[in-house]
Amino acid sequence: KKFKNDQINILVATDVAARGLDISGVSHVYNFDIPQDTESYTHRIGRTGRAGKEGIAVTFVNPIEMDYIRQIEDANGRKMSALRPPHRKEVLQAREDDIKEKVENWMSKESESRLKRISTELLNEYNDVDLVAALLQELVEANDEVEVQLTFEKPLSRKGRNGKPSGSRNRNSKRGNPKFDGKSKRSKGYSNKKKSTKKFDRKEKSSGGSRPMKGRTFADHQK
């Protein structure tokens, strides 16, 4: 409700909540993981660009999920642009630009008298440039101290369409598999006769000639 009424700027929603949100004017949608189907993806990014407005949808993907990205592109008839993660220097530069803009806004406001007194004391003790630089450095590096723990999300191809590991099968499935009854694993007609234990001799002569038999090499496979 607060997000819809513009009281907050950022909303973190679950995959279930994505379908029930009826909010217009969203500028950005960030998908931490890929939805289970293309329809859900369309619902998610549909929060942007409503009523003729423009919006940006960013999706974090695992390299093995690129095939599913292609399916989404084909279903929506639009291609996505690949973005590389920002370098640390670029992140710091963005923070510095943001801090500079904030300081300019702070300078337009009236400061409290007690803060002016502290400022005067600091300026009498330190060089003004060094003092401002130290304060700005603390502001820029403040976000580095915040630890963000993100829950790892399995890639879609491993997670499966229904949230189950793909490729797994029910052992009691009737799709051509006999029911496991805990008895002998040997099927009907299985011979209990021991196989020949005759050791293979490379020097043994073949039945068609006198040349000794030898194993095939990689060069033989290339012929």
Tell me the strand percentage band.
under 5%
Q: For the residues shown, what is the average pLDDT?
A: 70
Q: How many helix segments? A: 8
Instruction: Please describe the biggest sheet, giving its number of strands, its sense, and whether it closes into a barrel.
Output: 2 strands, parallel
Rg for CA atoms:
33 Å
Top-tier CATH class of the domain at 15-76: Alpha Beta
Quick one: overall form?
Answer: elongated
CATH architecture of the domain at 15-76: 3-Layer(aba) Sandwich
pLDDT < 50 stretches: 159-196, 199-223
Quick one: how many beta strands?
A: 2
Structural class: mainly alpha
CATH fold group of the domain at 15-76: Rossmann fold
CATH superfamily of the domain at 15-76: P-loop containing nucleotide triphosphate hydrolases
Fraction in helix? 25-40%
Order of helices and strands: HEHEHHHHHH
Strand order of the largest sheet: 1-2
End-to-end Cα distance, whole Å, is 71 Å
The quaternary state of the protein chains shown equals single chain
Family: Belongs to the DEAD box helicase family.
GO molecular function, one term: hydrolase activity
Region (Disordered): 153-223
Protein name: ATP-dependent RNA helicase
Account of the protein in words:
With 223 residues, this protein is mainly alpha-helical. Among the domains are: 15-76, Rossmann fold (3-Layer(aba) Sandwich), CATH 3.40.50; 88-145, no CATH class. Helices cover 36% and strands 4% of the residues. The chain has a two-stranded parallel ribbon with strand order 1-2.
